[in-house]
Amino acid sequence: MRLIVGLGNPGEKYKFTRHNVGFLVIDYLINEFNASKISSKFKGELFKSGDYLFLKPLTYMNLSGESVREVKDFYKIENEDIIVIHDDLDLPLGALRFKRGGSSGGHNGLKSIDENIKSDYWRVRLGIGRPEDKKDVINYVLGDFGEDELKCVKKRFPIIKKAIEEIEKAPSKYSKKGC
Description:
Layout: E1 2-6, H1 21-32, E2 36-39, E3 44-49, E4 52-57, H2 64-75, E5 82-88, E6 96-100, H3 108-117, E7 122-127, H4 137-141, H5 147-154, H6 157-165, H7 170-173
């Protein structure tokens, strides 16, 4: 069983924000894998298709690890079978990187997961770029994607789908530069 987690914040006001790119990818994957919702417990929405579980934590970003830990413990999933999809300010818009383990890089959702299950899970880092005003990071990540920005990141969703199907090869096979 493999657990695919998309990081984001619940609610319509956050739906198309840069910080919610993980939720957008999960919505895409749920559709592509024809996954069915199996639970609204575990502090999140959980969907299943074959050997894949798809999780959207509903705890808000800073507490995402609580939801991940509950699903991990209930289904007895090893960290090597957990893939977390998240936004990354340090990558240009649309850049895609895969790695297992590492630091949170200041990302509060990853910090929460690290505190709850350690850090040796897979990460899918999808670049959202940085704001021109480096002091305006919070408004930037919680701001909506522009139309062209959203088109750019959505081009990466099919690549992410392929990559999670063979995650061990993803770092060398599926990493991409920005749009």
